[in-house]
Amino acid sequence: MDGSDFQATLKANIDAYGLQAHQLPSSLQALDTFVNNFISAIQLTMASIAPKVRPSPYTKVTSKQWWTPELSVLWHAYDRANLRLSTSHG
Fold first, then answer.
1. How many CB atoms neighbour CB 66 within 10 A?
2. Per the confidence metrics, is the pTM higher than 0.85?
3. What pLDDT digit, counting tens, does each position of 29-74 carry?
4. Which end of the chain has the least Cβ crowding within 10 Å, N or C?
5. Residue 29: which domain range?
6. Are residues 41 and 61 in the same domain?
């Protein structure tokens, strides 16, 4: 994503919503509409310019979804037993 591409697209989206920076909204409703349109222009720009992030299938969150607290207890019990066995024969 290039910053100039983002700025150009944002300017085009702001213009498409008819937003004018030098015009102050005259009422609370006009301010609310202005802010909503401005946020929409930013979101539209981000959706069209910013790269989509795809989480890696190898991240800790997704790779261990099958791991449960019960498995942790069993793993620790196995690890302790294995440690006792190795120290008694060592």
1. 6
2. no
3. 999 999 999 999 999 999 998 887 777 767 665 556 677 888 888 9
4. C
5. 3-49
6. no
